[in-house]
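Quick log. Single chain, no ligands specified.
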Amino acid sequence: MSLGALLLWELPVAAVSVIAGVSGIRWLWQYVWLPRLGQGSRLAQRYGAGSWALVTGASDGLGKAFAQELGRYGFNLLLVSRTQGKLDRMKSDVEAHGVQVRTVAADLSNASDQTFARIAAAAQDLDLSLVINCVGATVHRRYADIPAATLRQLISVNVNTTSVVTHTMLPLLLRHAAVTGRRGALLNVGSIVGRFYWPGTQLYGACKAFVDHLTIPLAYEYRDHVDVMSFQPTVMATAMATGTEPAAITITPQQAAHAALSQLGHCDTSHGHWRHALVAAGLAALPPMLRNRLLLSQALEMGKVELKKGH
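-> predicted structure:
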């Protein structure tokens, strides 16, 4: 083989090796290194100590974990959820950290102007620096088996709420940046389901793909003043989980919230925890037919459990 031919062979191999090495280092930095660091002082310095964070879906699961984490870091909280009793308990728990808490009890499956006007009114006089859209709902079954009312509810909760709350609160985040000289932050919670075609949970996947495609362009549009991240986790031990999820990839909401907040301001998209990042890499590597067969089988098992629970 001539020297020229050898170089033509070796240069692409070397380039691929360098790209793979850089990607591996970035993966370790994002999913292993950042979550190990303390986040309270960094977030307070970046977004403003004593400023306010809005969290939807704040009384259960991942939303509750985000609220608890931010309360420990000294952020005042505007908590939005459906049940006032749960919000009252959350308020008492978080106020123990010495922060202020406001609550709005709202059924976010009701995408009326009045619903969002109440949230906007509660936030209007606050120094709002963070918005976390965490509310979400899903079912697992074949598309024709989803009741029409459930279909409309899922679209309302997962698509309408996230898009309208984001649109309503962005001006307040920009106001915070203009007045304080610090950055604002928007974290929209999607799902790994939105990154793959997912038989058996196709509607939820379509909704979360919408969230992803809404959020990442905003990271560029508002890059001068607001940190925007599309958070794409997978299985967590929450009320929305059915109990059939593999233990090896199931993490706590607290682990997920901590990982996401550690990456906020560094990344515009993330799976959060390293386990979930590995799941995404594994699914991407599977042949589509095999992946679809596995995902549909798992989704239908989860659907059986949901139906037994009356969901």
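Strands lie at 52-56, 76-81, 101-105, 128-133, 184-189, 226-231, 269-270.
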